[in-house]
Amino acid sequence: MTTVITHNRRRSRLSSLIDQPGGISTGIALKQAAQNLSSLEEQSLKLVEQTIQQLAALPAPDGIENLEGALNKAYALSAGIIDAAGPFAREDLCMAATNLCDLLDGSPSDQPFDWRIITVHAQSFRLLLALPLEDKATRQQVLDSLKDVLKSKLGS
Amino acid sequence: MTLMTARSPGIGETLRESAVFNFEGAVTMVIDDSSFAQELTIRALKGFGLSTRHACSSAAEAIPILKENAVDLILVDSDMPGMSGFEFVRWLRRSKLEPNAFAPVIMTAAHVRQSKVQEARDCGANFLITKPFSSLTLLERIVWVSRDNRPFLEVGDYLGPDRRFRVGDYDGPERRADELRRKAGL
């Protein structure tokens, strides 16, 4: 039988502060946040480009004993793309990066990994960055083909 | 006259554009090993009227601060070298630090590994937000955790807010709306 201990319900200081007189509306808060973030958009894209370069330059591990470390490096780089691109409505980049994270996370580290998957994703990231934002059809094609890679490798 | 209220949205509900809130004076901590991601979070919070008092690049940097200072809100990244965000929240909840052990915690994650899903559920954070998320989502979750009055439960290895969410309309008093009504003489 599992014992359940219930601690007293307590009101956080934050819940008192939120009701202080004054403050701002959601609309103003979001406008201010967008203004604060906008100056970082260019830096975000540069960071994404650098991360893609690092990903493309990652050497395939020379033995199964080095595979786990290599997969972790690629995973961290891919997650970094989501970190950098996320706040700027680049869902395409984030979806491609999530696809790669899923693939790397789902791949056993004691079996050979097809390193061409990394290359394909790096090329796809570059294509997504280069495509005009209005070219939604090509963007979708790129994402669909990456999803197919995920399905064929992990069967999900 | 349209009355504004800071009534918090439930899970999945959208925060109204006219809802008013005030976070002035709140002590906020942001923990993220990525300096760029940390900067993004700090700037978004600033827009909401939340200034970040403690910006830390690791859990190890945050822990001594939490031992000495009361914090009202913590935003922590899940995937960090050394102590992960999950391990950090687990430590916090069991730290017996008053009031920090019960502080609202929002965890952010670019991606959650399959092997970490259970850990994410069991670490004791009030909420996990997966990236990419909009500023609106972040704001909604902050307002939501500030109203989160779920009791803390200790069940086996788990210590944190009751993981059972109540789905449905909020039926408590609309404190801010009542105040505005009074002021408006309604």
From TrEMBL, chain A:
This is Chemotaxis protein CheE. It comes from Brevundimonas terrae.
Automatic annotation (TrEMBL), chain B:
Transmembrane segments: none annotated. The keyword Phosphoprotein applies. Residues 27-146 form the Response regulatory domain. SUPFAM superfamilies: CheY-like (SSF52172). Gene3D superfamilies: 3.40.50.2300. Keywords: Phosphoprotein. InterPro entries: Bact_response_regulator, CheY-like_superfamily, Sig_transdc_resp-reg_receiver. The modification 4-aspartylphosphate is found at residue 77. Pfam families: Response_reg. This is Response regulator.
